[in-house]
Each structure stands twice: as structure tokens, then as C-alpha cells.
């Protein structure tokens, strides 16, 4: 997954844009299923704000807002793709519980396009 890079603010001391750091953290949280608050856990702050004087910490709210924005973009793209489908769509649901006792639901849409290629959207 690659989150689009919009506007950036460069940090003079480190040369790293805060927006790029935020996007990288969003990708990390998304890819590994971490909690938004993970970014603020003890120990992470020291690593993520090195060198301390020149880097602003990334907040959980920033990660959450970025991922919600990404979710809206992905949702709009899937909706647009599914509106173009002229064939039938098969929906499949998968329920499971994580080791931390959290329940999850994944809904998949499968269809065949005009070229007879099977397409799956999640």
C-alpha cells in the first residue's frame, strides 16, 4: 500500500518532511493492524522523535485522520469500480475473532469482467 503524498512541510534540521513521516506511520499502522494510539505508547516516542529537538511527535489523531481519509478514497474507488460491472456480483462474508478477542468481518465482492477475468474487491 502506498498512501498519496499531498502537501509536505520539511523539517530544516532533519530534511525529512513531517507529512512523509505521518504517511509512513499510517502505512505501518494499516499494514500491521496496530491501534491508532500505538504511536503514543511508551518507548515509541523516543524512536519516532529522534533527533528530539528537530522533529515534532506524530499523534494518534493524525494517524487516525489520515487512515480515515484513505478509507474514504478506497471506498469511493471500489464503489466506482462496482458501478461499472455489467455482470452479477457474488458477495462472500468471512467472520473471525482475533487472539485479543476482537471480532472482525470481511466482505468480498467477486465478479467476472468483460474479458472473463475474475475480479475480487474487498
Structure summarized in a few sentences:
The chain is built from 3 helices and 3 strands, in the order αααβββ.
Structure report:
This protein is an alpha+beta fold. 36% of the residues lie in helices and 18% in strands. The chain contains three helices and three strands; from the N terminus they run αααβββ. A three-stranded antiparallel β-sheet has the order 1-2-3, with no helix packed on it. A hairpin with a 5-residue loop joins strand 1 and strand 2. Helix 1 packs across helix 3. The longest helix is centred in the middle third of the chain and has 24 residues. It starts with 17 loop residues before the first helix and ends with a strand. About 10% of the residues have low confidence.
Spatial strand sequence of the major β-sheet: 1-2-3
> How many DSSP E strands?
3
What's the helix-strand series? HHHEEE
What is the tally of helical segments?
3
Strand content: 15-25%
Described by the principal axes of the CA atoms, the overall outline is elongated
Q: Profile the largest sheet.
A: 3 strands, antiparallel
Summing up helix and strand content along with how strands pair, one would put the structural category as: alpha+beta
Helix content: 25-40%
| Assembly state (oligomeric) | single chain
Return the average pLDDT rounded to an integer.
75
Kindly provide the radius of gyration, computed on alpha-carbon positions and rounded to a whole number of angstroms.
19 Å
Uncertain runs = 5-16
Distance between the termini: 14 Å
Amino acid at each position: 500500500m502506498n498512501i498519496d503524498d499531498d502537501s509536505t512541510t520539511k523539517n530544516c534540521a532533519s530534511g525529512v518532511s513531517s507529512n512523509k513521516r505521518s504517511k509512513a506511520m499510517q502505512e505501518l499502522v494499516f499494514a500491521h493492524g496496530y491501534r491508532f494510539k500505538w504511536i503514543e505508547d511508551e518507548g515509541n516516542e523516543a524512536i519516532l522523535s529522534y533527533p528530539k529537538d528537530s522533529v515534532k511527535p506524530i499523534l494518534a489523531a493524525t494517524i487516525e485522520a489520515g487512515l480515515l481519509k484513505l478509507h474514504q478514497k478506497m471506498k469511493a474507488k471500489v464503489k466506482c469500480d462496482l458501478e461499472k460491472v455489467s455482470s452479477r456480483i457474488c458477495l462472500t462474508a468471512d467472520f473471525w475473532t482475533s487472539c485479543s478477542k476482537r471480532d472482525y468481518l470481511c466482505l468480498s465482492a467477486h465478479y467476472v469482467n468483460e474479458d472473463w477475468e475474475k475480479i475480487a474487491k474487498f
